[in-house]
Fold each of these.
Amino acid sequence: MREDSVDGGQDERNGARVTLAQVAAQAGVSLSTVSKVLNGRPDVSAPTRSRVEELLEEHGYRRPAPTPPEAPLIEIVFHELDSTWSMELIRGVQNVAKAHGMSVVLTETGTRHSPGADWVEGVLRRRPLGVVLVFSTLPDELKKKLWSRAIPFVIVDPAGDPEPDVPSVGSANWSGGLCATRHLLDLGHRRIAVITGPEDMLCSLARLDGFRSALGMAGLEADPELVRFGDFHVSSGHEHALDLLRRADRPTAVFAGSDLQALGVLEAARVLGLQVPRDLSVVGYDDIPLAQWSSPALTTVDQPLEQMAEEAARMLLRLRRSEQAEARIELGTRLVVRGSTAPPAGTEGEGAGVAAPAEALD
């Protein structure tokens, strides 16, 4: 196994070089013990390993890139794997990995905001060529540990807005919300509800801002009673839709912040005896494969999840080769018009707008 150079790395606190001999002296151990820790050797006691790791992290020691394993890996990390759109992201990473003779390993950990604290120890043992994370951000301590082991990482970001020092790939959420709402306005709808995602996720707020902007451009204001926050899953779309559609002044259209929520809206309409799109128009978000097979087929905003994951994997490989990589890539969204939207009942012959064709938005 290759031993790390005694002349070590860079102390990121002041730009001075720190040697492994200095780390060994501060830890009160031999140089060979420090080298064993660096190379992941098991024959080091836990207290000693912890002390050496703390000193290496304190000095911001950057380890030389590990020798690639026989089966190079890209790791993709989710907080949940049961969301339908996760398969689109996995497919995108797999496309790039396969083209470069690599494999993909999946990990589920943490919350929608960041991976669990124990995850980083596992990834340091696996030593993948890089990590694609599907989270809003990454805590500073996890970033430092990955940087210290020369493991590049990129966030695929359907959920938030990472810090500027974190390479990330996202999509135009505001434009997507604007496009969906304009489509409903063009059809003649004026009482439009929105069921977006969690209130602490920037993508939810961006889609809601796009919704409000479209209403404002039409001289309308969003009714606070028709603005709901869910969790992007079917159950929250169903629950909020039942409440909205039981109102005496129910909306004639609903913009859902995800296709899964939109499917919940369709089921709520069915339970209440409403026909879509005759009695209610519904627009989703994401354009997952299931959207075209719902009944009726779902009008939705296409968020290019597979392409987002491909771009993240390519960015990861550029970082791996120490090439310059963009800090942020944001892909466009487009409206896909299907059968779940139509003019409100009684307005078909009164000059209501015509459904817009699928339209690319930056």
Amino acid sequence: MPFTIPNALSIAGSDPSGGAGIQADLKTFSALGVYGMAALGGLTAQNTRGVTALQPLPAAFVAAQIDAVFEDIRVDAVKLGMLGDADVVAAVAGRLRHWRARNVVLDPVMVAKSGAALLADSAIERVRTDLLPLATIVTPNLPEAGALLACEPPADLPAMREAARALHALGPAWVLLKGGHLAGDDCTDVLYDGREFSEFPARRIATASTHGTGCTLSAAIAAGLARGLDVPQAVGAAKEYLTAAIAAAGALNVGHGHGPVQHFHALWR
């Protein structure tokens, strides 16, 4: 049987500067050998310095984009990013249930690197009730975990394990709680499947090129799942890819704020 390139769909917001959102997801899919597709969940005006405007899209139009892909194309994995408001979250959840989407990676994007809010407060409950039960894996950072659990963000590894347990109880098959907001030079991620914990320790890389790191990691996990890796394998491969992309970001000259990572570090010489 000839090799078939896997397909992955990103449902997320647009970043015109190219470092995050749909643009980062498509770059990640391509870099990892996956055919990328995109349904826009919302629009932003942003660059490496921050977000200056948000434009929600009608929920029916977001749903129509998703239907257009699924009714014609095999979808091996879905990555969810910025969805903006409660109506869009509900619409996306409804279409994913309708199409019985598999390998769903939920990155609960709530706040931009600059601090701008990207998810309406009214939508957080919809994410809890509608999207988390559909997720193969959810990938919150510490502030996002606090928002989803309506509590203070975890501040150390024991608190991260407790938060992972609480998030898993809301329905996802796996939880990857990212430790990038921990104090100090270590930023360990915690993976939990309801039974066992795995830890992915890492040393913090001294760089300002961190724009779109969460989008890139979740897209890389989706690419791994689309290629047939199991969840721990996909997470491990995605972590390695992102670490190398951050380390190579200095080769880029993009913007004057938080620059993007180098998605094509293994391909551009």
Amino acid sequence: MPDIASDGSDHQFLRFVDVKKSYDHKHLVVKGFDLDVAKSEFVTLLGPSGSGKTTILMMLAGFESVTGGDIRIDGRPVTRTPPYKRNIGMVFQNYALFPHMTVAENLAYPLKVRSRTRREIGETVERYLALVELDGYGQRHPGQLSGGQRQRVALARAMIFEPSLVLMDEPLGALDKKLREQMQFEITQLHRKLGFTVIYVTHDQTEALTMSDRIAVFNEGVVQQCATPDDLYERPQNAFVADFIGENNFIPGRIVEVRGNSIRVAITGNQQVTAQAADIQEVGAECIVSVRPEKMFIRSNDQVEGNEITAKFVVHHYVGDFIRYYFKLEDGSEITVKVLNDVTAPSFADGESARLFWQSNDCYAFRHM
């Protein structure tokens, strides 16, 4: 992973300051976006369709105007700078390659418009073909390449003129699962090797967790949380982030006691559990307790630590490396537990009671979504 610390200057390499966007001068699709990005950092904008993440990318690229706020690259304001003067590389989902040009001509084009010499263009094209493992493909046309090969050409073309930033808008969306995973690895390897700064847009949470130094989670034009992948997954700040990142169980309840950052919650069936306070701490308030399926355990002995509840077994699904168990509480709330597929995996009859256990540090109490 590249060093994402500040380079010692008094500004971050890329800065969004209270950036807003409206298309009708009434409703904001981006609402006061703030973000600092260090040089060589890989930051992903993650969220559902219509959340504002692509609009942010388009404003940064200069393809959309900024309604309010400021965008700075290396200390310079760029909100009024035309796209071709921002020194930004762009990778699109549909590759955006020139079909009538060969691969080599596609790569040469950004260098030609920057008036590089013929010798420099030839040497640079060969170097980048080798970098993306497409030696010998220079004379082919995009239509003669596979989807993964075309995406490599698009990556090379975005980087070949050594831009200050590379923007990627759902670049792997058109690829199948296996090829997506391969390209995720290749993009992160190129990023580590060359050290360019990346702003990456996706709605795929696994992609974001796998590739990013930090992730900004969007919803309805607002960043819900911006953090490292492990912070987002292990310490979500609200119910939207907990629900959007990974898989979670949500158990409704009411807060009966608060001790610092620890909350006691009454749930169905006269049961109580302890959780970490996230965005709610008022005694008597309705809340939801969030705990991930892999953090829960099915206990059959009498030695219990942490939270314990009783639930009714519904069904289990064999997934291969693990088994997914489904349970229900008295109020109908559904609970999922993921158990490794080994000799210790338990079996239950339909409707049988089971004791479910988890550590209080592994769950959070949130306001209702």
Amino acid sequence: MARIAVMGAGSWGTAFALVLADAGNEVRMWGRRPELCEAIAAGHENTDYLPGIALPAAITASPDAAVALDGAEVVILAVPSQQLRANLGDWGAHVPADAVLVSLMKGVELGTHLRMSEVIAELTGAGPERIAVVSGPNLAREIALREPAASVVACADEQTAIRLQGLCHSPSFRPYTNTDVIGCELGGTTKNVIGLAVGVAVGLGFGDNAKASIITRGLAETTRLGVALGADPMTFAGLAGLGDLVATCSSPLSRNRSFGEKLGQGLTVEEAAAQMRQVAEGVKSCTSVKELAGLHGVDMPIVDGVDALVQGTITPAELVKAMISRQTQPEVR
């Protein structure tokens, strides 16, 4: 049993808090809005993001970051990726000096092109043995309903990964360990962009052949970028790579696929965002991933196309046409 702080009261932060509580830990959540924290603490329900799902009594919540972080052995970071820097600036001083910091976030920071673990290291001074990520095919509502799921806990220090593995191994959630933080983070980030592309194809009325083609070529792009940055290519064949990609691209519960569908149906980015309560990370990450790939000379045509669509320089139909009409080449090169 450990005292764990979960910083972020969205759907994934809440679902992972439930996993941690089911595994026997004391969990204190932080959220921006007092009324939502009250619903979690007193009513044992996240009424905004996971309505109808009862949360364990071991979960409490507070809008005061200092209260949530007090005495925490492990700090789970579950805020939108582009807001991490600002949030750590607000409450980073309250993070216990020896706490392990775990990122649930899937993004690359705009402007700096830093992965979330790198932002955490820069702002907290924590060494790689104290920074971990959790990534995999983990749709929040299914996790909260305690449907069977697996994921990856990655840390450069294997013993830290093993410790965290024990803390989140519940009757319905099976974690595996990995030391490839780079690969796990890039797999989780890029799959959101590919999920948007698949959603666009669905919104345009295309079927399984189109979806499977985008998923497969998207995995190839992700692997190229990962290898260029020093990741283990085998990571992308696992839960944090292919597993997460398939879940995101296949499920109507996926925010990024759902956002892409709306774009494919003709909505603008602003109109699609207005219809969705939660952040579709790929809408922001497509630009940072594109720029990161450019810095390393990696060809990522699907990411490039999604970024152009989000920026409004091409239409959904032109995105699909661009993917199909590119110059032919060997599949493996």
